[in-house]
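Handoff note, outgoing to incoming analyst
You'll be picking up this chain. Sequence as last confirmed:
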Amino acid sequence: MRAMVYRGPYRIRVEEKDVPRIEHPNDAIVRVTLAAICGSDLHLYHGMMPDTRIGTTFGHEFIGVVEEVGSSVQRLKRGDRVMVPFNVYCGSCYFCARGLYSNCHNVNPNATAVGGIYGYSHTTGGYDGGQAEYVRVPFADVGPQIIPDWMADDDAVLLTDALATGYFAAQLGDIVESDTVVVFGAGPVGLYAARSAWLMGAGRVIVIDHLEYRLAKAREFAYAETVNFAELDDVVLEMKRQTDYLGADVVIDAAGAEADGSLLQQVTSAKLKLQGGSPTALNWAIDSVRKGGTVSVAGAYGPVFSAVKFGDAMNKGLTLRMNQTPVKRQWPRLFEHIQQGYFRPSDIVTHRIPLEHIADGYHIFSAKLDDCIKVLVQPGA
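Most recent structure output, in case you need it:
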């Protein structure tokens, strides 16, 4: 089969790999019909995440058609059109029993930190991802779900991570009616978090970024006020000014490990790899939220030291909430929102590329060329 293969930072290509096979009676083999490039894939592409091994296939956002199932699989059959959450999880351990699918204890040798994730380095289990023609899906009776007939493929693939994560980020904020919500980062997750904040009762939503085309999308798609931090001497001071010098009720970090805004943090994290990611957006969030407020972290960070202002968070009495998204837990409510026409996930898609051109897709997305917000990958094209 043809698959995207990692060959080192900024070096990926499409190569022939063996078609995955059934390794356990609970496995399924899925023929990928549509995948996506996620902002967190760029952390791998840039060499930010440890133990990203040569030969790995990325891709944790994908849908497809079941080609083969193991002897124990009961819920799926050949020919089913399925969406697969980015979490690999068993469904029965201590954490899965409590709905913490992203913290499954049985799918990752490094499970003290995180469960399994498709195509996201050996720190999350070493599973090959869906930027390929075929993918092995463990615990096939637990994770995948048959796509409803009424749902378009372009929408379904975005439910496997980006939309679910943005929605979860807003949930973690414990938003109550009339809250002021600030979102750092106007990528896909930030856009979805901002749009979701309205559904949870926000009275005001502000999105902060430094790219004008992404801020325009935040106004159009998320109906948010926008602030370009590159035009300000002090974005935190501006947020205080806009909130009667109290701070926002809820701040969401949807930027993560490669947030711009501080040259020092960029050098020590992205260049020298001395941190698990630039904590610029997270520190801005801690400084911009009011005392007693909530900071929700949806952006991905590496599992090593980051220079976070934890003392300030403690002194302000903040609630910090974060996790990798337990994707399937979000689906029932998101299905309702989409069916009722509250939003269409695919409205943020800007680029579609065949699998053979995926290196170009990564470059365009990484360099923020051609007003790129979200890239879909078509293995069969």
